[in-house]
Specification:
Cytochrome Bc1 Complex, Chain D, domain 2; mainly alpha; binds heme C; globular; disordered N terminus
Length: 220
């Protein structure tokens, strides 16, 4: 019994010493991982409040609209959302609706952008779909084109990457994907790199329809 108690005390002391070492290593002002996680939670709940300003267009759950106007943004990587919002604010991505929202004073704040991005990134969304469906031939064609030309960057399941600021395309609205693929090629997305435009330019209508159908149906 006594032996056990001593061992227990020994473990407690060792743990306390280790903890103290950690605390003194991190202090002062370094990015302690626990602190960062705690902030992320706080930010997301702040972001939920900000999102009430967005839900009228993007939908209660961030699913967008099937008409191709408003994209799904739930489940998108926080880094991607942040970049796109800043691009609208700086006039590097064009859309009258998003530009006017981002240029209003209340969204000039990078902290607000980070909060709403953290909130949205944490939402799980079923694939938006919205394509004609059932056309297996064109969908299979899209899947092949994707594997060949896109997967290397956007990921094998179009999951994107937060660290690489790479957009998730999986589960995006079908009509929105089609519109973006045309908009990029037609020069209406100035924030897309010239070599990305060159990659999309040779795609024909079947490629674009197939890609949009395949991508819009991927569940992550
Ligand atoms: C008046 C309607 C409207 C409101 C309100 C609105 N959006 Fe949008 N949003 C749009 C439209 C339309 C687009 C697509 C624009 C385009 O084609 O570039 C868009 C695009 C986006 C994109 C780019 C998505 C992508 O896949 O590239 C993000 C991110 C976004 N909105 C976030 C927000 C956030 C966050 C808010 C609230 C602060 C918000 N939006 C409020 C209409 C709106
Ligand atoms: C070399 C890497 C790379 C390759 C290959 C690539 N992309 Fe992208 N793509 C990107 C990056 C980076 C962005 C984000 C650009 C930005 O910041 O707006 C992007 C953005 C997009 C967008 C806009 C998403 C949105 O909602 O804003 C679409 C759609 C897209 N890519 C489709 C494709 C398709 C389809 C292919 C294959 C034919 C492809 N990409 C190949 C890197 C790549």
């Amino acid at each position: 019994m006594r032996k056990h108690t001593l061992v227990a005390i020994g473990i407690t002391l060792a743990a306390t010493a280790a903890l103290a070492a950690c605390v003194s290593e991190r202090a002062p002002g370094s990015d302690a991982p626990t602190g960062t996680a705690a902030n992320a939670v706080a930010n997301a709940s702040q972001g939920a409040k900000v999102y009430t300003e967005c839900a009228g267009c993007h939908g209660m759950t961030g699913q967008g609209t099937p008409d191709g106007q408003v994209p799904a943004i739930a489940g998108q990587h926080a880094s991607v959302i942040t970049k796109q919002l800043r691009d609208y604010r700086e006039g590097e991505r064009w859309d009258a609706r998003m530009e006017s929202i981002m240029q209003e004073h209340r969204f000039n704040d990078d902290a607000q952008i980070a909060n709403v991005a953290a909130y949205l990134a944490g939402i799980r969304m079923p694939p938006a779909g919205g394509g004609p469906g059932g056309e297996t031939e064109i969908r299979a064609h899209g899947e092949r084109v994707y594997a060949q030309s896109c997967a290397a960057c956007h990921g094998p399941r179009a999951e994107g990457s937060d660290a690489q600021v790479m957009p998730r395309l999986a589960g995006q609205q079908y009509m929105y994907l089609r519109r973006q693929l045309h908009d990029v090629v037609d020069g209406r997305r100035p924030n897309i790199a010239p070599d990305h435009i060159a990659l999309l330019a040779p795609l024909d209508v079947d490629d674009i329809d197939g890609l949009a159908e395949y991508l819009s149906e991927i569940a992550l």
